[in-house]
Amino acid sequence: xxxxxxxxxxxxxxxxxxxxxxxxxxxxxxxxxxxxxxxxxxxxxxxxxxxxxxxxxxxxxxxxxxxxxxxxxxxxxxxxxxxxxxxxxxxxxxxxxxxxxxxxxxxxxxxxxxxxxxxxxxxxx
Length: 125
What we know:
- With 125 residues, the chain is of the alpha+beta class.
- It is built from four helices and three strands.
- The chain has helices spanning 2-8, 11-15, 18-32, 94-105; strands spanning 38-45, 71-78, 81-88.
- The protein has a three-stranded mixed β-sheet with strand order 1-2-3, with no helix packed on it.
- It starts with a helix and ends in a 20-residue tail after the last helix.
């Protein structure tokens, strides 16, 4: 990320018209996507006005998987809960299991919920 910021502050880059920068960025994004396998997005802390807190237990942020990036992960927190979500078009769940197993090995309590398609339990991790 710091490398991207450095490019944005470069005086020569600032002189390039925005329309040309947009075309260059779109082409570079399409090229970079050929080499990515997943996306992780961290929404961060979610807050609501106090009147709604009694109605809300948690927030989920779901990213749609794609043929190129077959598995995606996101995180957001609300109150005292940090929610990680995985969306995937893969049948194999090794990646998700390894992630949650690592959390458990660090002494973190894990609760797993799913949509019951190829679902597994925290005991399976």
